[in-house]
Amino acid sequence: MSSCSSTVHTLDLCYCGLPRVLKTSWIDNNPGRRFWSCRMYLKNERSGCGYYLWHDPPIGGRYQNIIPGLLRKIDKLEDEIKALKKKQKMTICILVGTNLWLCTCYYCCSDMVIDAFCGDIF
């Protein structure tokens, strides 16, 4: 017996009888436009009951052209931030490794070895 077969629903419930949820579309045709849907849509590999109702009026003209481009720019900047964070971690690892090596030289090696490799650092 499926609870999704009911044809009766209220403004607050989807066809499954669950409270509907407000989501935002980010596809190029309706960027930023909100809609009501079944809360099971795209959860746990279920498609839900198919309940769908636009909350916002259609987006027209200029906004429909501008928003997708802005979203692509945001994605590109987020990718750049990830790459920079990865580079920063690598730099920190190199600096920490170099510092550990220098400390090891300082504490474990004779003064002659330190003078030969490190000069006037210490």
TrEMBL record:
Annotated keywords:
Metal-binding, Zinc, Zinc-finger
**Keyword Zinc found:** yes
Q: Name one GO molecular function term.
A: zinc ion binding
- Classification via InterPro entries: Znf_GRF (IPR010666)
Q: PROSITE patterns, per this entry?
A: ZF_GRF (PS51999)
GRF-type domain sequence ranges: 14-58
> Mind telling me what this protein is named?
GRF-type domain-containing protein
Organism, as annotated? Daucus carota subsp. sativus (Carrot)
